[in-house]
Amino acid sequence: MSNELENEKLSGYGAIELGGTRTICAVGDASGLVLNQTVIETTTPDETVAKILDYFKDKDLKSVGIISFGPVDVRQGSATYGDILNTPKIAWRKFPLLKTLTDALNANRDEKLPVGFDTDANGSLLAEVTWGAGVGLNDAVYVKVGKGIGLGAMVNGKLLHGMLHAEAGHIKMSVEAGDDFKGDCPSHGTCFEGMASGSAIAARWGKPARELNDKPEVWELEAKYIAQGLADIILTLSPQKIIMGGGVLHQKELLPLIRKNVVEYINNYIDTKELRNINSYIVPAALNGSQGIKGALKLAISAEEAAMRN
Ligand code: ZN
Question: pTM of the prediction?
Answer without folding.
Answer: 0.95
